[in-house]
Amino acid sequence: MASSMVTSSQSNRPTRPNLAFRRIRGHRSPGEFAALVRRAAREIGEQVSCDARYIGRVEAGEIRCPNYAYERVFLHMFPGRTLTDLGFVPRSTVRGRSARADGEAPQAHSMSPAHTTGETHEAYEPYETQDPQDPYETHHDHEESDVLRRAFMTRGGATMAAASLAPLGLPHDAVAADRPPRRPGVREASALEEAVRRIRLLDDRHGADGLYRRAAAPLRTAYALLDAGATRQATVDRLHSGAGELAISVGWLAHDSGRYDDARSHYAEALATARVTDDPALEAHAFCNTAFLARDSGRPREAVRAAQAAQRVARPLGSARLMSLLALREAGGWAGLADRTGCEQALVRAQALYERGPCDADPEWMSFYGEAELEGLEAQCWSTLGDWERAARHARQAARLQDPHFTRNIALYTAELADDLARGGRPDEAATAGMRVLDLLDEVQSSRIQTMLAGTARVLLPHRRASGVSAFLERHAGRPRTP
């Protein structure tokens, strides 16, 4: 049974795939098409967290009509076409507006009896329930979902406002507030998945430091939802997967902000969740991040073992791009062991797997992994091996190729470039790159990047008379340090 806003004739109607939208996507993978959507959004001043799963939901017919932000983006991408041309149904059909008086506030999630007694039905979502509020946007549209809107907001640069999913297990309207908490259902599972996307989006833009502590609340809520228990196995699986992915996302925030013990704990929690539910995709992701953490925290042999374990788990999933990333994680471990041959072999394997191209089996969380990330991770390997010239070449290419959406990664690759140039005996070029990083640090809060830049500054100290170095050192020294 669908939302009570939908008429009875609609509520029993099965989901119809959006074939028109699928034809528009053409040969591109869902992830590649989602990147085009995000780029088009930026062109008109919108911010949407479109990813491969969103595209999949549209094509499956789960989203019969997009929210207003996506509508503006799609009409910008395809001028002269209407939503109907794109395979969507008119908004009035799914909103049920004719049943409401003009002054009546819409009930975006008025629940049918099935919802209020504890479990939502999973046949389809009658209309899009709006991704949680995107950064830099202020929506006052009461027709959007209260639950999915509340995940994250930002105000002013890298300042993060409170992030919370609680109390997802409780109804949100005043009448229902007197009823006892219900068991989690589709709405809570969706909100949990959207929170993961929101964390990733904000990290892409601002880095981890301002977000980590605020992300602890939704993680606690996620595991509270698991304890509350859902009645449908499909919902239970979504909640476990969502909680595991959220644990990895929070672990990454800890990792990137230098809290390695916290990160290790969160990754272990995700790994345990994956094994309890026999979820190989989640297990591969947890091992992937564990390998990265092990490399960064000076345990290269563990990095190799974790990356190899991830590859064993991930191989049946059918994603060459995932296997490519895991090979790069292994290469990083070999570099840390000063095993140049092992590192080179893993890098060759990563490149060959990457060139197979994207596919529908690529995990949603890998939206960051493109040619820029491939170049950036290879740069880190050569840097670890002390081949500064080769490292600088790959770092420069990574910064050049990176989508402007990923501000944090642009800062990271440019910091890598500055350090490689400094250690390779090119102080003037290093100072120029360092200045670019300092410009980006007004938007990005990442202890990892700040630590890298501090190391570069130390290397450049003996060269303060070189062109531009003194100005870089003075500006770097004058920056306030993140506590």
Describe this structure in words.
- InterPro entries: TPR-like_helical_dom_sf.
- This is Tetratricopeptide repeat protein.
- The chain is mainly α and 483 residues long.
- The chain is built from 22 helices and no strands.
- It has helices at residues 8-11, 19-25, 30-43, 52-60, 68-77, 91-95, 113-116, 146-149, 186-206, 216-228, 233-256, 260-276, 280-296, 300-314, 320-336, 340-354, 371-384, 388-401, 407-423, 427-440, 447-460, 469-477.
Précis, in short:
It is built from 22 helices and no strands. The protein is an all-alpha fold and 483 residues long. The chain has four domains: 1-95, no CATH class; 188-278, no CATH class; 294-369; 373-483, Alpha Horseshoe (Serine Threonine Protein Phosphatase 5, Tetratricopeptide repeat), CATH 1.25.40.
**SSE order in H/E notation?**
HHHHHHHHHHHHHHHHHHHHHH
Cα-atom Rg, whole angstroms? 24 Å
Quickly give the CATH architecture of the largest domain: Alpha Horseshoe
The beta-strand count equals 0
By CATH reckoning, the class of the largest domain would read Mainly Alpha
Mean pLDDT: 76
Structural class call reads mainly alpha
- The oligomeric state is single chain
